[in-house]
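seq as requested:
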Amino acid sequence: MPSSRHPTQLRRSLQARLSKLTPPGPVLAASLAQIAKRCGRPTCHCANGTPHTAYHLTYKDCGKSRTVYVPLDLVEEVRSWIDNHRRLKRLLKEISDLSLDLVHSHVQHHKRRRGRP
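struct tokens:
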């Protein structure tokens, strides 16, 4: 972000991003992985053919990685929750950058008003 913008412009941009902070649904800080597994039954198609597909969610809990099975009918919903988290992280980074630019531009703006370069 350019720090040469006027503080008023930066405040408007900051306010616009702050208004987008409310997520459209649940937020989940995790990763979703598709895994292939064999069930172990000798008569199942997975014994000699294509394995079964399952989804697992990996997240951190007290510094440890945890994994949870995700039912197939919930996979798309869980993906949208993870996307919401990524969108919020990006938005928070933009807000942080704009806030820092606002501090820099405030100092520059006051120097210009006093006649300093």
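The mean pLDDT is 87.
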